[in-house]
Write a structure and sequence with these properties.
Radius of gyration: 15 Å
Oligomer: single chain
Structural class: little secondary structure
Largest sheet: 2 strands, parallel
Mean pLDDT: 76
Low-confidence stretches: none
Order of helices and strands: EE
């Protein structure tokens, strides 16, 4: 039987120099907590 492991949930770790991972997106509600991250936007009808 094959064991399936899920992807680990949670935030991505910081880069070795201490800055947040730039691939991470932030919702407009949490933008004030993470000013350096790109905003997360949905396309229409998505």
């Amino acid at each position: 039987m094959i064991k399936v492991e899920a992807i680990k949930p949670g935030p991505k770790p910081n880069k070795p120099d201490g800055t947040p991972d730039r691939r991470r997106r932030v919702t407009p509600d949490n933008k004030s907590n993470h000013p350096n991250l790109k905003p997360h936007r949905h396309k229409p009808n998505d």
